[in-house]
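Thread: quick sanity check before group meeting

JM: Hey all, I'm pulling together slides for Thursday and realized we never actually wrote out the predicted structure for the chain we discussed last week. Dropping the sequence here so it's in one place. If anyone has concerns about the input, flag it before I start.
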Amino acid sequence: METAIELEIGSGPDPGTYVVRVLRSVGGGEPVATIRLDVDELVSQRPHVEASILSSSVSTRRIMSDTEAAVQGVGVQLFDATFTGDIRTAYRTSAAVAAERGKGVQIALRLDAPGLAALPWEALFDPETQAYLCLKEPLVRHVPAPFSPPALAVTPPLKVLGMISSPSGLPALDVEAERGRLEEALRPHLDAGRVELHWLDDVSWTGVHDKLLEEEWHVLHFIGHGGYDTETDEGVLAFVGRNGRVDYVPASRLADLLDEAEPTPRLVVLNSCQSGASGTLDLFSGTAAALAHSGIHAVAAMQYAISDDAAIAFARGFYKALAHGRGIDEAVRSGRIGILGLSRGTLEWITPVLYLRGEDTHLFDIAPMPEGPPARARPVRRKAWLIAAAIAAIAVGGGVAAALLLRPDGGVSGNGGGQGNGGQPVMKEVTVPVDQAWTETGVFCAANGTLNVKASGQATYDETEAPVGPDGVTSGELFESRVYRDADTASLIGSLDTYSEPFFVGYAARYECPIDGWLLLGINDNDLAGNRGEFWAAVTYTPPQ
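JM (edit): ok, ran it. Output follows.
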C-alpha cells in the first residue's frame, strides 16, 4: 500500500525491552526506539479481555461500560509503549500525508519477537485522538516474504469453498444454520453473480484434499472449532476424523494440505475460535500466522470467540469490499465497521485478525461484471429528476441532429457527440452532501467510457444516529430505506442522468458507462431528512478507446 507505515517490533537488549523500527512510512524517516513492554502481564489478561469483548455485544446505555474501559486500557498501554517519541512523530506525519492525498494510512506490524503476536494489537487506542486505530485505518500483521505474487486475474464470480466442520465429541454446530448465515451475508453478491459459494460436506483430511485437487478456488472459508495446543505451542483446527470423531489438524499440517491446490487459494478465512491466536514461544505458531508464513497470501481469522451476529456482519462487509475489488486490508476494516453497527457498545470488531504475506494488499484483479439484463425502473425518489421525457430526437436527412434530455438543474445536456468532456480525460473533486438526493459532478461520460471514483469522509445517518463512511450501514440492516437494493443503506451510489440503473460506489468503484450521460452521485437513502455531513469524491474519467 502506497500510504503505509510499517513497524518492526523485535527483542531488545534487556529482558522486557523491545526495539521498534520504522521500516517504511509515507511520511518519510526510519526512526528507531527501545521500549519496555510487560508481555507476560498483558498475555495473562487475555481471558479477561476475551470475556469483555464477547460480553460487549449486549447493549448498554452507559457511555463507556466497565468492559470497554478494561479493553481500552490495554489498547492505550500498547499504543503508548509502541508509538513513543520519534515513532509517534513518524506515525502522525504519515497519517497527515495520507490525509492530504485523500487516503488512510495502513498500519503494518511485523512482530519479530515471541509473545508479541499473542497481544491484541487490534485494540490499539490513541488517547490523543480518542480513537481505536483499526476502526480508522487498515491494520495488518505483516509476515515478511521474499516476494508476493501479483493480483490474480479473476473473471467473476469469485469462487469461495465453504466448509463447516462439526465432529462428534465437541459442541455440535447447527450446520444448516451456519450455512444460512454465510449465505445470508453473501446473498447480494450471490444474486448478482459476483460470488459463487460451494459447500464441502466431507470436512475430513481426505475430503478437503480431494476438493482442492478438483478445481481452482480463490477463497477457502472454514467454519468450525479451533484451539491452541499449549504442549506443541501450535494452533489447530478441528476436522472430522474416523468414525466422525475429532481430528485436530495442526497449522503446519494444514499449510501442507492447502499447498496441494493449484493455484493455492489466495485467501483463507477462518471463522473459528482462537484461529488468530498465537503462542509465546514460536513466531508463527498460530494457525493464521502459520498459513501466511507457509505461502497463503492473506489469512483472516478470529483471535477470540465471536458471536453469530458479529460473524455475519463481518462476512457481509468483508466480502462486499472484496467483491468490489478493494484491498484485503480495507476489506477487513469494512468487516469491522459492519460489526460496529450491531450495537452501541460492541467491541467484537477487535476479534478479527489479518495476516498478510508481503506488502501487496490486492489479492484479486476482478474484471467488471458482464452486462446484465435490461435495467429495472429507477426508484421513486429519482422520478423528480428522472428523464421527464425525451423531448425529441430531431431527424434530419435520416440522421439524428440532437437528443435533448432534461438535466437536474433544468438545463440540457448533449448525448456525448462532442458535448462536455466526452472526448477528453477528466479529473475532478466533488463534495456530496448526504441530505441531498443527487449531486451533479459536472463530469460527462461517453458510452463505453470509464469512470473511476474514490471516496472518503464520514457522515451521520439519521435512522441510527451513527457515523457512516461511503460504504454506508454495512450490517445489511434497514433494507427498506434503500433506493438501490444491491448497495447498503446510506452508502454512496452513482448514476448517469440518462440511465435508469444506479451503481454502488462506496469507497471506490470503477464503472463503464453503458450510454452517454452526466455522472450524478448520491446517497442510498429514500428519506434524506435528518442526515448530516458530506462525502468527498475524486472522479477520474477515461474516454472510450
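AS: nice. The chain has three domains: 4-137, 152-366, 426-542. The radius of gyration is 25 Å.
JM: adding both to the slides.
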